[in-house]
Design goal:
Length: 295
């Protein structure tokens, strides 16, 4: 049933994303802003945020255990389905990438930056970004967003159930939306710990879903680079797995100068297709684990 619950939640979530509906980020934001408290001088403390994500995770875990003990495990699956729909999802990205690609095709780099500036990390929102740097920053942010909102949730749901899935997604929300900004770096460090295994599993999946030969050349930098964060792991492995220099704008512009106007949209389509194929690989792997009786 884990496979069925995840598949149904994934399908529903993708449709909601296409309609830009039901943002889980807004729910986390309201939860944090309503209950977040930090005494003066302790704005960097992580305790309040950790408590706020442990409570719903623990409550859901206890509900599932209670239903399982009383032979009512089947009643937990609808609950898990609803929670997974809320946990997953990256609404709004479709429209953002579409208008960005259109602006790039017109050669309007200032307009392209205007459409995506709110999506970029705060340190990279300056209008002086070159087209190459802007595009790589957007690609990295997009891949990380999809990883955190789909692959990370899926991994911990399969490994530890709905409670761990809520906990993992909650840590991501804390690193992005916790009201006291001094605490966010600490939450980001926790996020790196939670993401360490699943992001490297996804990087291995890129080799199956993409260009295996190119991936083999770059994957050593990921597997041997224990100090690399999830952003670097995703960019390195995705760059090796994609053909046509999809994540190498400088080289693409030298080799295909006449096709530069199409680079933005072409690159983003390649990244999206790689992520979609990778999710298909994960679903197939989960199906094999179910058949083998390991899940």
């Amino acid at each position: 049933m884990v496979l069925v619950v995840f598949l149904l939640a994934y399908i529903v979530r993708r449709r909601l994303d296409a309609q830009d509906r039901l943002s889980g980020d807004r729910l986390w934001q309201r939860w944090f802003h309503k209950h977040a408290t930090a005494p003066a001088g302790k704005e960097s403390s992580l305790k309040a945020g950790i408590v706020l994500i442990i409570l719903p995770a623990l409550l859901l875990g206890l509900v599932v255990v209670f239903l399982d003990d009383y032979g009512l495990r089947v009643l937990a699956y609808p609950l898990e389905f609803l929670v997974m729909v809320f946990l997953m999802g990256a609404p709004g990205w479709g429209d953002t990438l579409r208008v960005y690609a259109d602006a790039w095709r017109r050669g309007d780099m200032q307009g392209a930056w205007h459409h995506v500036q709110d999506r970029l990390p705060a340190a990279e929102r300056g209008s002086a970004l070159s087209p190459d740097a802007m595009h790589l920053s957007l690609s990295r942010t997009f891949m990380c967003s999809v990883f955190e909102r789909f692959f990370l949730v899926a991994f911990w749901y399969v490994v530890g159930g709905i409670g761990l899935a809520v906990l993992a997604r909650g840590i991501v929300a804390l690193s992005e939306q916790w009201p006291q900004s001094p605490a966010r770096p600490g939450y980001r460090r926790l996020e790196e710990i939670v993401a360490w295994i699943p992001v490297r599993l996804l990087s291995l999946t890129f080799g199956i879903a993409g260009d295996l030969a190119g991936w083999l050349r770059d994957i050593r930098r990921v597997l041997t680079g224990f100090g690399k964060n999830k952003d670097e792991v995703l960019m390195i492995s995705a760059n090796g797995s994609l053909t046509g220099y999809a994540l190498d704008p400088e080289r693409f512009s030298r080799i295909h100068p006449d096709e530069w106007v199409d680079f933005g949209g072409r690159s983003l389509r390649a990244v999206r297709d790689l992520l979609n194929r990778s999710m298909l690989v994960w679903i197939c792997l989960l199906a094999l684990l179910v058949i083998a009786g390991l899940v």
